[in-house]
Amino acid sequence: MTKPVTLSDAAYDALLKAKGKNMSFSDVVLKLVEASKRKNNFSSFAGALKSDAANLEKFRERIEEDRVRNTEGL
């Protein structure tokens, strides 16, 4: 089933540029929607920065030192 959709000239031009030779406009819209879902899925980064406790403590200490250094002049 198809549905008529009204687009601005700018939106049409953007879709046309994103459309490959063997793609329909429906394919482009679906591709863009899927890409936007993946872009906002922060849970995919869970566990990406695994580290041991010693390294995490050093990292925490550096952050604290930077905070102190950055607020000294305030």
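^ that was protein a. below is b, sequence first then the tokens
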Amino acid sequence: MAQQSSTAALQSLALQLGVTLLVSTAMVPVSAAWALGALLGGGLAIAGNLLVVMLVFRNYRAADPGALTTRMMGAELARLVLVAAGFALVFVSVEEPAVFPLLGSFLVVHLLPVWWMHRVSDQAMKR
């Protein structure tokens, strides 16, 4: 992974972790179950996004777009399996999980990289 792309990916993952911890901490006064749901949902999103980053950007070569596309599709399928297994594990092991914060935090944290990468690329275009 090139230095600039690795820095942006690591910043994005750190942002996801920070938001997950912030949201789950903010849910503590509401309910411990909501805080746990937010933490688990954000954690599942982070795990999926980390898996994609590791699979797509290891030994990255821009000169071979076919291989990169295949890796991207494989990484997305791996993320899907990981997230589905994670949600299944949560629903099996947590008695009465708080579904709204679980899915809400997953969605917010999962979509943060889209916003972050847009922000990073927008700043790069202004230079």
